[in-house]
Here is the input.
Amino acid sequence: MMDVTQLGQLVDAHAAALVLYARQFCAAPEDVVQEAFVKLFKQERTPSPVVPWLYRVVRNAAISTARSEQRRRRYEAHAAREAPAWFVAHADTALDAAEVAASLQTLPTEQREAITLHLWGGLTFAEIADVVNSSTSSAHRHYAEGLRQLRERLNPCPDTTKTT
Amino acid sequence: MSGHDENDLNKLEQSLAGLRPSAGTLDRGHLMFQAGQTAGARRGLFWPAATWMMTAVAACLGLVVALRPAADPEVRVVYVERAAQPPAPQPPSSEIQAPPASQSPAESVGPSSIAYSYWRLQEFAARHDIDELPDTAVSGSAAPAASATTSVGGWRSQPASASSLFNSGVE
Here is the structure.
């Protein structure tokens, strides 16, 4: 069974990416991620590998939450207005975090999932395929297609990326 | 062209990876507290569950005992060995012959009575023509018996029967 130290390390390393991933589906991603960590802590045996397991749990819970949120459109609109930024402002990149978030929202769900899981979740394409119940090639194809669409929508061009 | 496109995608990928996702309003402390609380509540379920289970078992057993039908009376045959009959008591042997039927009613009084023994002694003396009887005041001692045997001649002829009669009288 997982101890508190391991849980704290997992929260520190993956909570933000999990919130970003859950945000692709529902308006209350923090609750979903918190429930996923609590569920992980209740497991008699720690699932292996634990990170894809967390993303799978978050995905299922977020989709379920999104379905129930359809009955609460008023609350959803309110939450959407006060939703925090998807990314923390970072000086190492010239990309505008809000613009990246807006561009991500325009992508199809499969592409958003693949990009989020691979870029910020650190999952391999095989693990992504396991999380989203698809094949590895499909996960890679969705990722590449999503990157191309993002490149077309993002301005300025990635060529202007700052170097530190 | 393809190589340039691939290079652009790699640069975009690196730029996107440089963005740090926001944890939003996720409270780490609250998360850890809720995880510990939930895990503690789960670990504490053993004894309540055991208590409820044992209570249910006890209730079921109580119902079984309360609702079971009355048992039929059991007929048990017990064989008991008959105890052996004790042998008939033998009559005690005595040195004194049973008194004749012509004895006086005073003989029916217990043989330990001094008056009875003295009466028998008198009768014995009269029957055997004995002139002198020992003094009744000292009849319990050995000296008068010795004097009686020395003064009465006929007394010596039957010393055994006389002494036995005397002893039976004074005892």
Remarks:
- The helical segments of chain A are 4-23, 29-42, 50-69, 73-81, 97-106, 109-120, 125-132, 136-153.
